[in-house]
Write a structure and sequence with these properties.
There is one protein chain. The protein is mostly beta strands. Strand 4 and strand 5 form a beta hairpin. It starts with a strand and ends with a strand. The longest helix has 5 residues. It is built from 1 helix and 6 strands, in the order E-E-E-E-E-H-E.
């Protein structure tokens, strides 16, 4: 799921009660794990490795999310 936020290279995304790590590549998490990364269009993308983020996380257009840096 592509967001309207500019891509990030670190931190976390809080969305639908979940905390997704911002990673550099899908391979940075285990299969089935949620993640966030910068898409080829330069936007923050929410995904599930080898899965469907919209279905598995319950995402829909207008879902609220926030980015935060590492603690």
């Amino acid at each position: 799921a592509i967001t309207s936020l500019a891509g990030r290279d670190h931190g976390f995304v809080d969305v639908v009660g979940r905390v997704l790590p911002v990673v550099g590549a899908y391979a940075d998490v285990a299969p089935g794990e949620p993640l966030a990364l910068t898409s080829s269009s330069g936007r923050l993308e929410l995904s599930v490795r080898n899965g469907d983020a919209a279905a598995e996380l319950g995402l829909a257009r207008g879902t609220t999310l926030s980015w935060r840096p590492h603690d």
